[in-house]
Amino acid sequence: QSHSMNNISRMSSAIISATALPAAGPYPTLDPFLFCVYHKDDYPADESVGGKMETALPGNGADFDPDAPYRMYHGEKVPGFPQHPHRGFETITATMDGLVDHADSVGNAGRYGEGDVQWMTAGGGIVHSEMFPLVYADRPNPLRFFQIWLNLPAKSKMVKPSFAMFWSDDVPVWNSDDGKASITIWAGDYFTKGHVQNNSPPPDSWAADSDNDVAILHIIMRPGGKITVPKATKSGVNRTMYLIEGHKNGAKVDGKIINKKVSLIMDSSKDVSIELSSSSTDNDVGKTTEFLLLQGKPIGEPVAQRGPFVMNTRSEIRDAFMDYQRTSFGGWQWPRDDMIFPQDKGRFALVDGKEMRPPMKSSNGEYEKDEL
């Protein structure tokens, strides 16, 4: 249950309102975002016979228990989300720890994680699976990532589905000079000076137009760290910050101590300072405090949503269900609904029939793209 903490707004001009985050489930979001969920699961080592990458106990089909060390979600033996459809928006899966196996009805696939970002434009319709195999048998398989749904405007809702993989080396990371703050730029043009940006959004994305000022930032503060997030470069931009880890450290946001996991609706026309005391002692997360920032110009169109479909009208939702029943959005070509890849496969992306791997360092220290 959310508890309003709007008294903050009277004390800090950059914070419009603050709401406690739910203990489990999606975070509240503002247009153009539809959905944001923080996955944090301490999966054990694979103990299955023959390297099946399965948990010892099967799932119940809908395991979202927030008090358990890990969740099976809709998986039976492998945690995750077996094949399911989407239409009318984009999914951005931004990873920090662990590995995810992706397969879809267009024929694209991948194993990614450990800082990689996958950006999928569902457009007119796609079926995909997102599974969390226990790849490692010699150590635990902790998994931590965000899945974020970014809406598409009416003109783009029925575009051809697409898939983009940004390896961790392509994702810009800004570090403060004192090493006490870092920002991973999953999307946007903030803190990217001096970086070559290789993670531009897909062409049909709302984020592809710089006028929409979409940004997705993962901010990590260490004791004694201080940064200023600049105001939005455009006017009329929605900006939300989420304090996701290290809330007991008492981080200051625009001069106000925040000691709960909260969603902060910000005034995007103002810079905002974030500061962490040098005496912070939240040992659970190595004394760091973490924020997620989502921002973008609102699309400003009606939103009709039912389950995995997001359109503008209820009749379009009915059409989506009928189209899916009739066409299966291209059908499922994979041998299992909870598609996973061999244990020794490593990180890869199969896009438009071409398999790629993360860049490998050559003998001179330069990165080389590895295409198979």
Task: Give me the count of strands.
Answer: 25
> CA-to-CA gap between the ends?
49 Å
| Strand-residue proportion | 35-45%
The chain-level structural class is mainly beta
Helix count?
1
Low-pLDDT stretches = 1-12
Could you describe the 3D structure shown?
By secondary structure, the protein is mostly beta strands. Helices cover 4% and strands 39% of the residues. It is built from one helix and 25 strands. The protein starts with 14 loop residues before the first strand and ends with a strand. Mean pLDDT is 91; it is low at 1-12.
Explain the layout of strands and helices.
Layout: E1 15-20, E2 33-43, E3 80-86, E4 89-97, E5 99-104, E6 109-113, E7 117-121, E8 126-131, E9 141-151, E10 162-166, E11 173-175, E12 181-187, E13 215-221, E14 226-229, E15 238-245, E16 251-253, E17 256-258, E18 262-266, E19 272-275, E20 289-296, E21 304-306, E22 309-311, H1 314-327, E23 348-351, E24 354-361, E25 367-371
Antiparallel strand pairs: 1-18, 2-9, 3-8, 4-7, 4-9, 5-6, 5-8, 6-23, 7-10, 11-12, 12-13, 13-20, 14-19, 15-18, 15-20, 16-17, 16-19, 21-22, 23-24, 24-25
